[in-house]
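User: Show me a protein chain along with its predicted structure.
Assistant: Here is one chain, sequence first, then structure tokens.
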Amino acid sequence: MITVALPKGALLTDSIRLFKTVGLDFSAFLDSGTRQLQIEDPTKTAKALLVRAHDVPVYVEYGQAQLGIVGYDVLREKAPQVAQLADLQFGKCRMSVAVRDSSPYRSAVELPPNCRVASKFVRCAREYFHSLDLPVEIVPLYGSVELGPITGMSEAIVDLVSTGRTLRENGLVEIDTLYVSTSRLIAHPLSYRLNSGNLHSWVEKLREASLAAV
């Protein structure tokens, strides 16, 4: 029996739909009345763990799950030791730099040296500004990072953007994009190499199903 790590939040519904197309039903997680964090597929061929998105690669890396679905943003930020097997195409968003719409800066390279940039994606933000050869102070925030520029604590933020509505409603504007993020299928490297639980077959089915859905 294989174990799959599924992410709570925005990717869950599409992840469950994808697995259902290959014959594995984890839709019990969508029942608002359930508090279960681990369920078995009715066919008894697989079970799933429901975990925070940032924890998916941790469970896969440490072997508690052989497969997982997680956003590329999480993989970039955590840099886990996992096998990245497929771009599943759903959950598309972008990692962006944003400032107040009243800010004079309209490109990241225009930001003043040593200014503050708030982000929950500390590694991604640091690497990006390092690539620009622009020294900044990264302020770690794990709640509403939009408040950074609003309160004057930071000049800019680095955060995930989907529709941009939250930025607009808080008087912020995007000035640069670091990268586009989509959902990715990952696997425990050794389990995949050894084809434990017939992983190769499941991965191929999931790849084909994701391509058919595009």
